[in-house]
């Protein structure tokens, strides 16, 4: 015969055992969640080698144009000799032994310049400076030949300049445009940002695009902005009026207020042209009617 009291005791043991399992599962889940949160928090933090690496806003800053560098022919040149020619300057900072990012950026810069109708040396000057003081003019010369060949534009060699320099002068130029980088000894490479810089002919930093893969239209607008209207067509000037740089999207976007004003002016011009056209047509018809009436009157007088 089954003893009910004995079974009641077993049920109590089973219930206690089930509660222990549930409690253990809850504790394990809490530990896993805590570990995941800690790992996520750690992943949100940048590695130590990226401390102080990035871009600072230096818009309106004047570049130290008296800095001296070496060009791709090994000649000592002043940075300022690429300015003051009624042209904006398209500036890039790279290091040629970069394992990935700088090479990708220069390839994209070359592709963008190739798609543009403008040519370095004609409408603007392009200056690429290595921020690795260990790199030599020989490296710069090889890189210049490589990217000029990919660009495939006549006379671009006189307008795209590849420079190397001392640690001190590189640091001064990088500081002027807000380009913060650092050497990582363990990796034997630089931690650095990537951006495109646009400078006026007198050395003022007018715009930088954090998107180094910026489309040709944005690059052209930035060059027109840097030139203060000295390069580009009337259409370019109109586009600069209707488009403003938006830092949040890192691109040029339509300015609604200016578009409305431009639309209103265009509407007035069109209406004025239409009114002038109708006024001239009515005037010609009136002149024709008057001339016919005068002829008839003259004929009547002659017959009389």
What structural keywords apply?
single chain, 304 residues, alpha+beta, Glutaredoxin, 2 domains, two-stranded antiparallel ribbon, 13 strands, elongated
The number of strands is: 13
Instruction: Quickly name the level 1 CATH class of the largest domain.
Output: Alpha Beta
Shape: elongated
Distance between the termini: 154 Å
Fourth-level CATH superfamily of the largest domain: Glutaredoxin
Q: Tell me the helix content.
A: 40-55%
CATH topology heading of the largest domain: Glutaredoxin
Coarse structural class = alpha+beta
**CATH architecture type of the largest domain:** 3-Layer(aba) Sandwich
Biggest beta sheet attributes = 5 strands, mixed
Low-confidence stretches: 4-18, 21-25, 27-33, 35-44, 234-245, 255-259
Assembly type of the chains comes to: single chain
Tell me the domain tally. 2
Overall pLDDT level: 78
Q: State which percent range the strand residues make up.
A: 15-25%
| Rg (CA only) | 35 Å
Task: Give me a quick take on this structure.
By secondary structure, this protein is an alpha+beta fold. The protein has seven helices and 13 strands.
Per-chain topology:
Elements: H1 4-44, E1 54-55, E2 68-70, E3 76-78, E4 89-94, H2 101-115, E5 125-130, H3 137-151, E6 160-163, H4 167-177, E7 179-180, E8 182-184, E9 189-191, E10 196-199, E11 205-209, H5 216-227, H6 234-242, E12 243-246, E13 251-254, H7 256-303
Helix pairs in contact: 2-3
How would you describe this protein?
It is a single chain. Helices cover 50% and strands 16% of the residues. Helix 2 packs across helix 3. The strands form five sheets. It has a five-stranded mixed β-sheet, sandwiched between helices. It has a two-stranded antiparallel sheet with strand order 1-7. A two-stranded antiparallel ribbon has the order 2-3. The chain folds into two domains: 54-254, Glutaredoxin, CATH 3.40.30.10; 259-297. The model is unreliable at 4-18, 21-25, 27-33, 35-44, 234-245 and 255-259 (pLDDT under 50). The chain is an alpha+beta fold. It is elongated. The protein is built from seven helices and 13 strands.
């Amino acid at each position: 015969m089954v003893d009910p009291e004995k079974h009641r005791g077993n049920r109590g043991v089973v219930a206690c055992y089930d509660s222990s399992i549930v409690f253990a599962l809850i504790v394990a889940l809490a530990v896993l969640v805590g570990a995941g949160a800690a790992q996520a928090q750690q992943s949100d933090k940048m590695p130590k080698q990226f401390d102080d690496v990035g871009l600072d806003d230096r818009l309106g800053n004047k570049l130290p144009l008296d800095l001296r560098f070496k060009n791709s022919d090994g000649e000592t040149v002043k940075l300022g000799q690429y300015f003051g020619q009624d042209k904006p300057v398209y500036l890039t900072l790279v290091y040629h032994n970069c394992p990935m990012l700088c090479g990708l950026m220069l390839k994209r810069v070359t592709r963008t310049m190739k798609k543009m109708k403008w040519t370095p040396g004609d409408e603007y000057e392009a200056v690429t400076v290595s921020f690795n003081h260990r790199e030599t003019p020989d490296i710069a010369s090889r890189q210049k030949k490589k990217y000029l060949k990919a660009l495939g534009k006549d006379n671009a060699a006189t307008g795209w300049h590849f420079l190397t320099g001392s640690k001190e002068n590189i640091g001064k130029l990088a500081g002027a445009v807000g380009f913060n980088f650092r050497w990582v000894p363990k990796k034997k490479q630089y931690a650095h940002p990537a951006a495109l810089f646009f400078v006026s002919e007198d050395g003022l930093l007018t715009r930088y695009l954090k998107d180094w893969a910026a489309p040709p239209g944005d690059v052209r607008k930035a060059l027109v902005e840097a030139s203060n209207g000295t390069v580009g067509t009337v259409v370019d000037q109109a586009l600069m009026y209707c488009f403003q740089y938006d830092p949040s999207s890192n691109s040029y976007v339509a300015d609604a207020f200016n578009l409305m004003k431009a639309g209103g002016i265009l509407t007035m011009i069109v209406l004025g042209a239409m009114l002038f056209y109708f006024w001239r047509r009515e005037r010609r018809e009136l002149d024709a009617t008057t001339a016919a009436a005068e002829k008839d009157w003259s004929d009547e007088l002659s017959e009389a």
